[in-house]
Each structure stands twice: as C-alpha cells, then as structure tokens.
Amino acid sequence: MARILAIDYGGKRCGIAVTDELQIIASGLTTVDTSELLSWLEDYVSKEEVELFIVGEPKRLHGEASESEQLISPFLDKLGELLPNIPVKRIDERFTSKIAFDTMIASGISKKKRRDKALVDQISATIILQDYLYNR
Length: 136
What we know:
Layout: E1 3-8, E2 13-19, E3 26-33, H1 37-47, E4 50-57, H2 69-82, E5 88-92, H3 96-106, H4 111-114, H5 117-135
Parallel strand pairs: 1-4, 4-5
Antiparallel strand pairs: 1-2, 2-3
C-alpha cells in the first residue's frame, strides 16, 4: 500500500503528517515553508509512494469557509496540475490547533517548545490525518 499524506496549510508554513505504508498510524513528519511546499511535495512523492493527499479545510464555527480558504484554493489548483494522479480529500480542521496545543500540554512538552508554531502545525496535520483514518 501507499502512504497517505496530510497537510495543515498555513500562510507561512504547513504542517505535514504521513501514514505508515499500511495506513494504520499517522505520524508528524515535518513543517515546510508554504513557498516551498509544492516543490517539497514533488520531491517527496518521487521517493515515497503516496496514494492520497488530505488537506485541512478551515471552517468557522457554524460551518462556513474561513478566510484561509482563499489561500488554499489556489494551492489546490497548482497541486492538481503538478501531481494529477494523486487525489485530494478535504477534512474539517476546526479546533485542530487548539487540540494540538492541549496535546502538547498533556504530553508534558515544555512551555518553550509549546511556543514553537511549527511543532503545533505538525501536530495539527497529524490530528487531521488521524481523524481521516478514524472516519474512513
């Protein structure tokens, strides 16, 4: 089987999480500058088999799209052009940053490391991917 890769897309950086080849476990992989994301993904899929991209879908409390969606839509268009053979699914990402931060506290991660927004983004991507795996 191939991996599933999740992206927590942000204006400055994107958290990346990936499954194992059996698609059982979601693990944080890295954080990538948004400006380098497409080239990073192209490089990654040249080395690892990826069958699906999961991209967080930011929504407001009542379900309507947030303003961040205006940044994600052009990215999705470019991703579809660059890697047309890998489908994309969207997953509601409401509260993932809050859950990620709470997870860091519960895990005993130091206050200094909790300020690392890149780590929060990576954990958020892992939560998005785990949510997909749980609900598929």
